[in-house]
């Protein structure tokens, strides 16, 4: 598997290192998510997914998007599981994700946003969906205190924290216990 340096060099070579994101650089935010997932007990795949969690752009973050025709290159670098989690986190339609998160059991069906005129459907098992929930929540908690979107999908994020429990719920309570920064 790649070294941390090799992964951050990928960001630099793709031109994503200095893009502004939530009050810091995109790379700094991505490193924060990687680090936080490690603190949360995430394995190496989860931490690599955390580093690349929005590499293809997301519903909210479109300042940088690695072209999807480079997916194989990223899979080669970080492994298929990490890349798949990052990919789904990037392309998912968040409303369909929120619907799936309300289910008590799988399979969990999540749709992609319309990309290049098509919509993809992902049927996820319990473990993969839990990892996706963890990745998605960790990403938001790393940036929300710096964000101008303090209340964005707050109920959905609370539901994810409660669903995951443990460190995810403790981190949600810690982060949202911090008063919102005034824009």
Descriptive overview:
By secondary structure, this protein is mainly α. It has a single domain (about 5-175), classed as Orthogonal Bundle (Hypothetical protein af1432), CATH 1.10.3210.10. The chain is about 55% helix and about 5% strand. It has 9 helices and 4 strands; from the N terminus they run H-E-E-H-H-H-H-H-E-E-H-H-H. The strands form 2 sheets. Strands 1-2 form a two-stranded antiparallel ribbon. Strand 1 and strand 2 (about 25) form a beta hairpin. Helix 5 packs across helix 7, helix 7 (about 125-145) packs across helix 8 (about 155-165) and helix 8 (about 155-165) packs antiparallel against helix 9 (about 165-175). The radius of gyration is 15 Å and the shape is globular. The protein starts with a helix and ends in a 7-residue tail after the last helix.
Indicate the topology.
Blueprint: H1 4-14, E1 20-21, E2 24-25, H2 26-39, H3 44-51, H4 71-78, H5 80-91, H6 94-101, E3 108-111, E4 121-124, H7 126-143, H8 154-164, H9 166-176
Antiparallel strand pairs: 1-2, 3-4
Helix pairs in contact: 2-3, 2-7, 3-5, 4-5, 5-7, 7-8, 7-9, 8-9
CATH superfamily: Hypothetical protein af1432
Report the total helices: 9
The strand line-up of the biggest sheet is 1-2
Query: For the report, how would you describe the main beta sheet?
Result: 2 strands, antiparallel
Which structural class do you get from the secondary structure elements?
mainly alpha
Helix content: 55-70%
What is the top-level CATH class? Mainly Alpha
Query: Helix and strand string, N-terminal first?
Result: HEEHHHHHEEHHH
Low-confidence stretches: none
Determine the strand fraction and express it as a percent band: 5-15%
Distance between the termini: 41 Å
How many discrete domains?
1
What global shape is seen?
Answer: globular
The name of the CATH topology is Hypothetical protein af1432
Arithmetic mean of pLDDT? 90
Work out the radius of gyration.
15 Å
In total, the number of strands is: 4
Question: What is the name of the CATH architecture?
Answer: Orthogonal Bundle
